[in-house]
Amino acid sequence: MIGTRLKKVADYVKGTTLADIGSDHAYLPIYLMQQHQIEQAVAGEIVEGPFQAAVRNVRSEGLSHKIQVRMGSGLEVIENGEVDCITICGMGGPLISDILLAGRSKLESKPRLILQSNIHSEAVRHALQSLGYQIVAEEIIKEKKHIYEIIVAEEGVMALTEAEMKFGPLLLREQSETFNEKWQKDYQHLTAIFETIKDKPLQQEKKEEIERQLKLYREAIHFAD
């Protein structure tokens, strides 16, 4: 029912109660329940079609007494202190960041957060730092042709550098093959953009920002040959 990406997310789930925000078809909470990793779950979904699919899937698995499917936006589907763990998966980093910041009152009890972003994970790290969370695990995985980042955070204080915000403090330390592939491709893309605008005087500000970003890449990442 679930692929490598969500199984990796499931590995980080702790506690007995889970809220899966943007749950789509509720595959993750159903899987966790069947693996006896959790005892109760909330599957939150804002879109009518996936919400109805989640209701059907939970019912067909005989889990309606264990998994509550709730319709609503972001963290509004739960109360502060209701769950031990929150998962938000399959979205862009800025959207995950917006969900966390808009729902900060639901995070006062500091549940564990497992956040899987498709792009722009830097925004997630900024949000976590401002919300009194620290990153305790990070993973970068490739499924089919897509590269995903998983960020796990718990209550704590952190002060990330610019490079740590962009690349991930733990991922930066490890610099895996998948990490290298992702950022080398990004570096080449930025270099190509720079080449197209370097002789255009009206693009001076953009050129300077790209040059600064490229310097950050070169200083932080040990690119493979």
From TrEMBL:
Presence of the UniProt keyword Methyltransferase in the record: yes
Keyword NADP: no
Signal peptide: none
GO biological process terms held by the UniProt record: methylation
Keywords, comma-separated and alphabetical: Methyltransferase, Transferase
Gene3D superfamilies hit by this protein: 1.10.287.1890, Vaccinia Virus protein VP39
Protein's UniProt name: tRNA (Adenine(22)-N(1))-methyltransferase TrmK
A molecular function (GO) term: tRNA (adenine(22)-N1)-methyltransferase activity
InterPro entries: SAM-dependent_MTases_sf, TrmK
Pfam family, one: TrmK
